[in-house]
Amino acid sequence: MPAISDALLVRALEAAERGDPTTAHCSYPPFAAWGRAGAAFATGSWRAALSAGEPFGIYVHFPYCQALCPFCRAIPKFRHRPGDTEAFLAGLERECRLWAPVFRGRRPVSLFLGGGTPNLLKPLELGRMMRTLREVFRPAPGAQIVAEALPEYLDAPRIGALIEGGVTGLSIGLQSLDPMMKVWAGRRVTAAAAAAALRRCGKEGVRHILVDLLAGLPGQSEKSFLSDVRTAAGWRPDEIVLGNFSAVNSGFSGLSAGAARALRGGSERMTRAGAELLGRLGYRAIGNDPVFSLDPGSPDSKYRYRFYAGLSMLGLGPGALSYAKGRAWHANSADPARWSKLLSGGVLPVERGCRAGRRREMISALVSLADSGYIPDAGFRKLAGTVPSAAFGGKLRCLEKRGVLLRRPRGWEVADQERSPYEIAREFFEPAVLASLLGDIPGRPL
After folding, report:
1. Do residue 255 and residue 377 come from a single domain?
2. Statement to judge: residues 166 and 269 lie in one domain
3. SS3 assignment, position 320
4. Which of residues 289, 308, 327 is at a domain's end?
């Protein structure tokens, strides 16, 4: 167990939380602890992972939005300006070509378009992006191709361009329909416009439609949130996700610790009430996730997104993160200008990295699941290939003795949500990782 004071442990985890890009899908080692890395580290890691027969997916990060919503935690993100789209598309084409030799003969089983607001791109621009990805990487038959989207930009031509590009599902970021929420968030969509956008998606042939809602936004009441849940459920999307607002890395990151805790508590109460309401409206909860589905067995369900299932993932675009299973995580430059400049010079824009390995991957799965309040045996096995007790029995029993975890028939319940991040970090984090979080950033991949 690392010898570290409570004060330093708090500082280390605060640094990890502030530096967390929501697209990382790496809970350990935290992104803030990664060292400097370059193209050779990234390509070597991928060649090794692919030689082991690992399937892979692709994540494209379009970092631009028309307006920056203060509740959004995604980083990097930028307000869209003239010229940004052409620079992004040209850079993406170069990045795909530079990676092509590494992936020759291999085909992705998943393609996820995130951001940012990918459907801010116009129909011809969406078509250009999808053609580039399909021509260079040739997704496997039956590949999941999912795009994040805002309802404001889901007109028929854009939907048509996405479907023509092979998109099978849309994750629609509704978040809130409360008029007051929309005023300070800079969002213009009305309930009627959002409903019309979903109808267009169905009419144009989108196979799977998911709607995201947020609970616990500053100033949001439970009544307002449940009204949003009822309205969205009335449109009958395939799935609804109830997310918990977090002030970290949002426009509310300056809130006091007490205010942030109060928001989190309110968010958890709202999502419980929302889950009960969705159950009465015909939606069923899936697993340990806040995903509620009309058809939990659907292969298109978010619960079955390969993107979230421990799959190797090549990230493209400014700030995109990659995961070569068993080998490494690495990240592109988050500065769009530097990302473009490196690609123009024929250099992959990799700037940060961290070595992966069996133990680190299992710790990452444990930390991620514990954050939701429960570590299910089945969920951990899905990510790590074994059950938690087989991987970390002794350490989990120590945490149980300290009142942090409780053993249940099918997993481990987090008994003390407030203490658990610190006690789990004290038990599992390597000294080098803690040192890096406290400011000793290594000059090479950790």
Report:
1. no
2. yes
3. coil
4. 308
Residue 349: what are its φ and ψ, rounded to 5°?
-85, 40
Residues 387 and 260 in one domain: no
Q: Write out pLDDT tens, residues 56-70.
A: 999 999 999 988 877
In a domain, 74, yes or no: yes
Q: Do 169 and 88 belong to one domain? A: yes
Model confidence over 317-356: pLDDT tens digits? 999 999 999 999 999 999 999 999 999 999 999 999 999 9
CATH of residue 43: 3.80.30.20
Q: For residue 373, what are the domain limits?
A: 6-11+358-435
Residue 154, in any domain of the structure = yes
pLDDT tens readout for residues 70-86? 777 777 788 899 999 99
Count of residues in the chain:
446
Q: For residues 372 and 275, which has the higher predicted lDDT (pLDDT)?
A: 275
What is the pLDDT at residue 15?
Answer: 87
Angle between helices 420-428 and 388-401 (to 10 degrees): 120
Examine residue 318 and state whether it is found in any structural domain, yes or no. Answer: no
Which of these three, 275, 308, 341, is where a domain ends?
Answer: 308
What the block records as the tokens of 236 is 């009958």
Give the C-alpha distances (Å, rounded to integers) separating 278 from 157, 264, 288. Answer: 32, 21, 16
Distance CA 238, CA 267 (A): 23
Strands 411-414 and 405-408, how do they pair? antiparallel
pTM listed for this prediction: 0.91
CA distance 263 to 146: 31
- Looking at the structure of the chain, the number of domains it has is 2
Q: Is residue 332 part of a domain?
A: no
The mean per-residue pLDDT over the stretch 393-420 comes to 95
Distance from the Cα of residue 361 to its chain's centroid = 16
Q: Could you tell me where the beta strands, DSSP code E, fall in 116-168?
A: 144-149
Residue whose entry in the numeric block shows the structure tokens 């309802």: 151
* pLDDT digits 0-9 by tens, 373-392: 899 999 899 888 999 999 99
**What gap in Å lies between CA 288 and CA 50, rounded to an integer?**
30
Q: How far apart are CA 320 and CA 310, in angstroms?
A: 16
Asked if 98 and 132 touch (Cβ cutoff 8 Å), the reply is no
Q: Are residues 363 and 231 in the same domain?
A: no
